[in-house]
Each structure stands twice: as structure tokens, then as C-alpha cells.
């Protein structure tokens, strides 16, 4: 007769029953199999944030030492900037010199008619001596007009109140003898030119003595 093998049921094989002591051992080993617990920081202790983030370049990629300029490149940049500054300073100096020369030329050209008038007065001095006086007066008027166009008008008014910004006292007279009110300009000894904020020189004047 053929020996019949015991039938094996499909599914998970059954394990023999565990004893109570074996189950307790399994329970005790379970926490160890889950791995060590993460240690919690103590109160008042700041956790280490880890290594600092590496610097990034403009493209958003971390900058490497090869991307940073070395000492030679920095020195070259500094020398280039210093050379540009020196060239700018020299160019500014040349431009200021040209402006000053142009201004001197304009002022000199403005006085050329004065020289022409003097030449005409000298040419006619032999025929009529009075023409010299007229020539000198004409030269004076031309010079005054030129200074006025340049912004320096003539200041030679008498009888006006004394102004320390416009006048320079060279003498003091009695009000009764001068026939002027106290503190007024009696005579102009030397005219001034220009306003107080832009003045070539103040007018030299005599002033009536003020009371007190």
C-alpha cells in the first residue's frame, strides 16, 4: 500500500505556541528593536543649527574659492581706479585753465574800445588841447560802462546814508559844516565798484559825524 503524506494546508504556517515567558521576553526586546530614542535638548540650551550655509554667487550657485578674486586681482582693480581718478583730476584742471583763459580774453576784449579812444585823443591833442580832456572823459565813461556790464557798477553817490558794506570811512566832518545829516556820506574821495555781495572795492568817503 502506498503511504499517504500528511496534507499541508495553504497559507501561513503555524508556529508552535509560545510560552508565557517567551512572550514577555519579546515585549521587553521590542523597544530595543525600534532604535535608540532621539535625545532631546535640555531647557536653556540652543540647539546647534549645523554648518553655516556656503556663500552663493549671482547665479544662485555656491561660490567656490576659485570664484573669489585673489590679492593680485584686487590690487589691479585698485590701480585702475586710482589711474581713472588721476586722469579725471588732470582733465578737470585743464578745463578750469581753459575757462580762466577764455574769461581773461573776454575781459581784455571789452577794454579794447578804451584803448582806441585813447589813441584818437592823442592824435588830436596837437590841433586842439581841449580834445584831450574830452578824450579822457570818453575813456572814463567807456571803462565805467564795461565794468557795469561785467557786474561791477560804479558807486559814487554822495548824501546817502553810510553803509559799512559799501563805504570805507576816510574822514569825519561836522554835520553843520558839511551841510549833511549826521551819518550821511558827505564826499566820495574814491568811487567804489560792485554791489556788497560782489564787490571789487568799497567807496572811500567822508561821513558827517553822528550825534552821540
From TrEMBL:
Its main location: cytoplasm. Pfam families: GrpE (PF01025). Residues 1-77 are annotated as: Disordered. Residues 67-77 have a biased composition (Basic and acidic residues). It comes from the Bacteria. It is found in: Cytoplasm. Keywords: Chaperone, Cytoplasm, Stress response. Transmembrane segments: none annotated. Belongs to the GrpE family. Participates actively in the response to hyperosmotic and heat shock by preventing the aggregation of stress-denatured proteins, in association with DnaK and GrpE. It is the nucleotide exchange factor for DnaK and may function as a thermosensor. Unfolded proteins bind initially to DnaJ; upon interaction with the DnaJ-bound protein, DnaK hydrolyzes its bound ATP, resulting in the formation of a stable complex. GrpE releases ADP from DnaK; ATP binding to DnaK triggers the release of the substrate protein, thus completing the reaction cycle. This is Protein GrpE. It comes from Pseudonocardia acidicola. The gene is grpE.
Amino acid at each position: 500500500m502506498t503511504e499517504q503524506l500528511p496534507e499541508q494546508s495553504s497559507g501561513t504556517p503555524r508556529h508552535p505556541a509560545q510560552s508565557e515567558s517567551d512572550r514577555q521576553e519579546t515585549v521587553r526586546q521590542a523597544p530595543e528593536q525600534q532604535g535608540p530614542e532621539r535625545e532631546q535638548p535640555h531647557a536653556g540650551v540652543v540647539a546647534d543649527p549645523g554648518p553655516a550655509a556656503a556663500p552663493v554667487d549671482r547665479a544662485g550657485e555656491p561660490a567656490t574659492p576659485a570664484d573669489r578674486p585673489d590679492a593680485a586681482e584686487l590690487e589691479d582693480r585698485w590701480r585702475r581706479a586710482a589711474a581713472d581718478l588721476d586722469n579725471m583730476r588732470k582733465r578737470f584742471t585743464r578745463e578750469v585753465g581753459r575757462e580762466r583763459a577764455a574769461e581773461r580774453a573776454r575781459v581784455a576784449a571789452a577794454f579794447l574800445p578804451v584803448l582806441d579812444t585813447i589813441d584818437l585823443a592823442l592824435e588830436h591833442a596837437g590841433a586842439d588841447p581841449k580834445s584831450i580832456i574830452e578824450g579822457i572823459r570818453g575813456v572814463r565813461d567807456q571803462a565805467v560802462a564795461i565794468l557795469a556790464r561785467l557786474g561791477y557798477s560804479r558807486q559814487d553817490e554822495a548824501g546817502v546814508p553810510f553803509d559799512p558794506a559799501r563805504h570805507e570811512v576816510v574822514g569825519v566832518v561836522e554835520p553843520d559844516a558839511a551841510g549833511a545829516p549826521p551819518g550821511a556820506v558827505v564826499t566820495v574821495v574814491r568811487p567804489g565798484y560792485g554791489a556788497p555781495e560782489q564787490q571789487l572795492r568799497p567807496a572811500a568817503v567822508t561821513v558827517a559825524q553822528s550825534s552821540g
